[in-house]
Amino acid sequence: MPETVTSSPINGNASLSVALHIGSDVIAHGLEVVLQQIAGVRSVQRVDLRSLPGLIEDDETDVLVVSFDLWSDLEGIWDPTDHRTKILVTGSDLHTREIESFSSLPVDGFLALEYISAERLNDTLGRLVNGEVPLPSELAYRLLNEAYPVVTRRRRAHVELTAREKQTLALLVKGMSNKQIARGLGISTHGAKRLVTAILLKMGVPNRTAAAVQAIDSGLVPERSTGDSG
Questions:
Q1: What GO MF terms are annotated (predicted)?
Q2: 3-class secondary-structure state, position 37
Q3: Burial, 115: exposed, middle or buried (Cβ in 10 Å; 0-12, 13-18, 19+)?
Q4: pLDDT by residue (tens digit) across 211-226?
């Protein structure tokens, strides 16, 4: 019988709801088995294309694990400025995939199936919900070298942000949702959404993850603001 991973992925006090949008039944079942070994995971459910709009509308899922072959299903139905759910894209040989073609799609991290285990998935979930961008090392190396927008090292043109936008960006980099940003700034959720949208437009990035990485890389937000990355 597999040993349960008792350490929780988020500050020892997690209770995560995870949804799986996976093309292969075999892989989906395998991920379910592994996720059930993680004490910090409260629930696991499978969702198909018809169920995705309802999942998005409810906004109650902490992490959506989507297989690379179904990643494009999120195009046009997922507003990266308005949903707290983290998107984890999974697949085999991710470093060989044409990820650049999907730069407009939402993503908060990648998970390589080749190295899957309860311990590794527990660590990945922890990093994901704490605002980090988990990447397989081979994929990270390739993206850094190709200066892909999600994880870029090239210096961007100077971005002029208002004081309020800078405050918002600092909270966004910490992985906060629009609702959390609103509470932190003492404004409405709609106001927080407008600020996040303005930031994405000014920075010329497709999603919150790309904005966070670029903010740290360009010095708009000090790296220490993201917390301890281990």
A1: DNA binding
A2: coil
A3: exposed
A4: 887 887 777 876 544 4
140 in a structural domain: yes
β-strands 109-112, 16-21 pairing: unpaired
Beta strand pairing status for 41-46 and 86-91? unpaired
CATH code: domain of residue 160: 1.10.10.10
Instruction: Examine the domain organization and report whether 206 and 170 are in the same domain.
Output: yes
Distances (CA, A) of 90 to 41, 66, 83, 114, 163: 18, 6, 20, 10, 37
Q: Within this chain, do residues 139 and 193 fall inside the same structural domain, yes or no?
A: no
Domain that includes residue 50, residue range: 16-149
pLDDT of residue 28 exceeding 90, the answer is yes
Final residue of a domain: which of 133, 149, 165?
149
The CATH number of residue 78's host domain is 3.40.50.2300
The domain boundary, picked from 149, 173, 206, lies at 149
Q: Are 143 and 99 within 8 A, CB to CB?
A: yes
> Residue 69 CB: number of other CB atoms within 10 A?
12
Cα torsion through 129, 132, 133, 135, rounded to 10: -100
Residue holding tokens 């991710």? 94
Q: What is the pLDDT of residues 33-83, one digit of tens each?
A: 999 999 889 999 999 998 888 887 787 889 999 999 999 888 877 766 667
pTM of the model: 0.60
- Summarised one tens digit per residue, pLDDT across range 142-176 is 665 554 444 443 344 467 889 999 999 999 888 78
